[in-house]
Design brief:
4 helices, alpha/beta, Transcription Regulator spoIIAA, Oligo-1,6-glucosidase, domain 2, three-stranded parallel beta sheet, single chain, elongated, 19% helix
């Protein structure tokens, strides 16, 4: 039972690769930068590292706007870099957690592209869609918590508004 609930008393070190160590000299952190600091992180007594999204993304929402959950964005490195990070973390006794929001994708993600094609395709209801008011404005006054403006975006292709897609 204790093993199943390791997280209850764990020290978890959150890392945003964007702002961690930059080894590619492009002004943004990367997986190699995290790898270089793993010994230091382990020496702090950390039980797990928690990475904010590192997946393929147009980077409009700090990589939370994912286009492919199975590919590492080249800005952060490669899948091989991630596998090395994972293996080295485990060798140092640390777990690796990945911040992944399954219901938040980029408007470039294939699921969204399919959803917006029509109201009757297999992925039509995979996103929150709503018809506009009679005057063509968004269906309600919902605001985006991140941007402070309407949470609705118009899709001319589908002729309706979609909520929460970057």
């Amino acid at each position: 039972m204790q093993r199943e609930q390791w997280w209850k008393n764990a020290v978890i070190y959150q890392i945003s690769p964007w702002s961690f160590k930059d080894t590619m000299e492009n002004g943004k952190g990367d997986l190699e930068g995290i790898i270089e600091k793993l010994d230091y992180i382990a020496a702090l007594g950390v039980d797990a590292i928690w990475l904010t999204p590192i997946f393929q993304s147009p980077m409009n929402d700090l990589a939370y706007d994912i286009t492919d959950m199975r590919k590492i964005d080249p800005m952060f490195g490669t899948l091989e870099d991630f596998e090395r990070l994972l293996n080295l973390s485990h060798a140092l006794g640390m777990k690796v957690m990945i911040d992944q929001v399954w219901n938040h994708t980029s408007d470039q993600h294939p699921w969204f592209q399919e959803s917006k094609k029509s109201r009757d395709n297999p992925k039509a209801d995979w996103y929150v869609w709503a018809d506009p008011k009679e005057d063509g404005s968004p269906p309600n006054n919902w605001l985006s918590a991140f941007m402070g403006e309407s949470a609705w975006q118009w899709s001319g292709e589908r002729q309706s508004h979609c909520s929460a897609v970057i």
